[in-house]
Amino acid sequence: MKRRTFLAMGAAAAGLGLARVTLEPWWLETRRLTLELQSLPSELDGLTVAQLSDLHRGPWVPEALLRNGIQQAQNLEADMIVLTGDFLSVSASYAPSLVALVGELRAPLGVYAVLGNHDLWVRGQEALARGFARHGIQLLINRAVQLRHRGAAFWVVGVDDCWSGQPDLALALKDIPADQFRLLLAHEPDFADVAASFGVPLQLSGHSHGGQFRLPLLGPVVLPPHGRKYPKGLYRLAGGTQVYTNVGLGVVSPPIRLGCPPELTHLTLRSCPA
Q1: Which residues face 197 on adjacent strands?
Q2: 81: buried, middle or exposed (CB in 10 Å: 19+, 13-18, 0-12)?
Q3: Euclidean distance between CA atoms 178 and 39, whole angstroms
Q4: Residue 175, Cα to own-chain centre: how many angstroms?
Q5: pLDDT of 99-119, one tens digit each?
Q6: Which residues partner with 264 through β-bridges?
Q7: What are the strands of the beta sheet with 152-158, ordered from one edge?
Q8: CB–CB of 18/250 below 8 Å?
Q9: What is the span of the domain harbouring residue 68?
Q10: pLDDT greater than 50 at residue 7
Q11: CATH number at residue 182
């Protein structure tokens, strides 16, 4: 009887483990953070940003999963929405369905996006650019857009993918006055070292999926290149630069998550004295 009980318990544990790794990709979490930034003008105090990343529309990520995340992002009613790359997986043929989904996003200050390595690998950048333009989503490839909020000017900046593209932060920043706040979108989080060298106060990234599969006490099994120094959550670098890494909404093969559920991020920016 003891042996049967042990075997039954083992089978139940295995079943629960299998259920978790296959169901966790659907367990979307909304992470709410408040970031204090010395360079943030007082007029921008309380500015809110919703971030989605790594949607990976493809054979392992159905429209239903993404639609849920996009609807929840819209419900946050943030001042602006940012999308930090890797929209596609396996084939650019998934671009139309992806664009139709993210095209539903609206925010008072707009929706902004950068590309990720998978988007370039499947050669989907042109289809994404055309689709985003139709829906008013600004794709930022080594360029910046000036915004105004409560009378204060600030900039949202985007760079090309640093793994497979040609990122040029100097080019993106060249027309920005030194005293105006800059929010950088860069798909790979380890690009933050470059951002810090330019004095960028805040970078938002994705790419790493937080490892996607994290063992208890041991952490991520595998992290991708350019996503190993700052793989998950908030980091503060020397000089004051902060980088936040969203663990993503979709998955890549193998299409499982463990200890790292998909994420929607809501950031509130606060100004603080120097």
Answers
A1: none
A2: buried
A3: 11
A4: 25
A5: 999 999 999 999 999 999 999
A6: 30
A7: 143-149, 152-158, 181-185, 202-205, 242-245, 233-236
A8: no
A9: 2-271
A10: no
A11: 3.60.21.10
pLDDT, one tens digit per residue, over 135-163 is: 999 999 999 999 999 999 999 999 999 99
Question: What is the per-residue pLDDT for 220?
Answer: 85
Q: What are 7's two structure tokens?
A: 């075997």
Domain count, the chain: 1
Residues sharing a CB contact under 8 Å with residue 77, sequence separation 6 or more, in sequence order: none
* CB atoms closer than 10 angstroms to residue 17: 11
Please give the single-letter amino acid code of residue 237.
Answer: L
Q: State how far the Cα of 177 lies from the Cα of 194, in Å rounded to an integer.
A: 19
